[in-house]
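$ ./design --mode recover --in tokens.txt
reading tokens...
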């Protein structure tokens, strides 16, 4: 199978045919929402909130049953005792982001984890205090880095540097990105990128960016809100210092799902690393001795603060089982085929009216995941978005002028993509 399509693929039968050839088809494992129009829902919002795995209810029910049956003893009893419940996610997360098991943990929420990582990996001096971020950084990430700079006594306007773009107003070429890191040189404390960027869908080369950051003496971390469960990742080998992600988007753990964090092995077990600490990061062998001094775990779990929300972990476990079944590499490959097909049918059917902001597919470099960010030319994008909603097309709108659509390889198919392009065409 390849990722290029011709006019004969621009038919419903061809789309169905392409679906037949796919080996991974876990669509029937998910609930699709209905809508009030006469049309079937076209769900392309997995980049915002992933669909509910059918097993999520069972997984949460299992824990409700344990609570009902055992009360506090549920920490030690039942099919999945709560005390080590988060460890049920570790192996899946390690596979998901290309890490060792001691480098990943499910804990907290995304912005909380980002702050925890910044406490450890943004250690500015009077000379080296700048943080390089994307031009279109997600607001919460911008608030996080701004407030961290201020916390250390710097003026955020001076300390936070936004990447300049050279491809279009949202995308930066790799050469230019690396140049900008080199230019900041010994003033640069940290590179912190959203991967993929939430507004353009651009994926960055983690290895190249990290190596460049390290070569000028800076740390390098990634927000994988749009990367975990979407990109094929290799965090350990690529050498990133840290990464954080949420689980309600591509990972389908449900609203407010528990987040993830990665800290590279080279930073584990260090005595002098600054870190905010809580009892869930304490040595498990003596945690309940209630000692006043913190005895850190030697893994990334040292960054855990609290006993985690079990129902959230349960729905995440249900979804991670599906990722384990499919394998991230296979999902990325299917995601590339679907995304390229969606791009093709959108261009073919909506042509002049659309501008695709997201970088094109590249056979050797991972330039994007399963999200297309699109501008509608000469139209009120927000009004069009409302029209789509009424028609049962679930995509999303991001200010000022971007529509985002995600063919999620776990549950979307070629037929969905074909129908989406037709529906958009009919909405003009
Ligand atoms: C790139 C990015 N960063 C941060 C956030 C904020 O996430 P949370 O509310 O889980 O902290 C989001 C949420 O959509 C996001 O997409």
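writing sequence...
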């Amino acid at each position: 199978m390849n990722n290029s399509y011709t006019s004969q693929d621009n038919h419903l039968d061809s789309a169905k045919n392409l679906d037949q050839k796919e080996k991974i088809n876990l669509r029937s494992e998910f609930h699709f929402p209905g809508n009030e129009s006469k049309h079937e829902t076209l769900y392309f919002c997995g980049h915002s909130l992933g669909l509910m795995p059918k097993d999520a209810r069972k997984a949460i029910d299992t824990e409700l049953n344990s609570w009902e049956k055992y009360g506090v003893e549920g920490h030690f009893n039942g099919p999945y005792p709560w005390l080590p419940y988060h460890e049920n996610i570790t192996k899946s997360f390690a596979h998901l982001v290309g890490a060792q098991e001691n480098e990943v943990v499910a804990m907290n929420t995304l912005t909380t984890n980002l702050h925890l990582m910044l406490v450890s990996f943004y250690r500015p001096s009077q000379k080296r205090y700048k943080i390089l971020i994307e031009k279109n950084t997600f607001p919460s990430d911008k608030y996080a880095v701004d407030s961290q700079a201020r916390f250390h006594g710097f003026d955020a306007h001076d300390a936070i540097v936004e990447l300049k773009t050279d491809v279009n107003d949202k995308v930066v070429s790799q050469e230019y990105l690396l140049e900008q890191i080199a230019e900041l040189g010994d003033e640069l404390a940290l590179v912190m990128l959203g991967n993929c960027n939430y507004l353009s869908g651009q994926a960055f080369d983690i290895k190249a960016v990290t190596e460049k950051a390290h070569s000028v003496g800076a740390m390098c971390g990634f927000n994988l809100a749009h990367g975990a469960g979407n990109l094929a990742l290799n965090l350990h080998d690529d050498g990133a210092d840290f990464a954080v992600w949420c689980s309600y988007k591509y990972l389908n753990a449900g609203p407010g799902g528990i987040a993830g964090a990665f800290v590279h092995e080279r930073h584990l077990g260090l005595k002098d690393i600054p870190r905010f600490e809580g009892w869930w990061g304490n040595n498990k062998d003596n945690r309940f001795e209630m000692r006043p001094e913190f005895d850190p775990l030697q893994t990334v779990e040292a960054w855990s603060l609290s006993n985690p929300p079990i129902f959230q972990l349960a729905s995440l476990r249900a979804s991670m089982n599906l990722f384990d079944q499919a394998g991230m590499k296979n999902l990325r490959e299917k995601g590339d085929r679907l995304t390229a097909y969606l791009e093709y049918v959108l261009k073919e059917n909506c042509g002049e009216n659309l501008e695709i902001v997201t970088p094109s597919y590249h056979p050797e470099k991972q330039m994007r995941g399963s999200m297309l960010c699109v501008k509608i030319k000469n139209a009120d994008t927000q009004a069009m978005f409302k029209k789509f909603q009424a028609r049962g097309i679930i995509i999303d709108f991001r200010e000022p002028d971007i529509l985002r659509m995600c063919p999620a390889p776990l549950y979307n198919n070629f037929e969905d993509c074909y129908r989406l392009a037709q529906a958009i065409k009919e909405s003009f």
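exit 0
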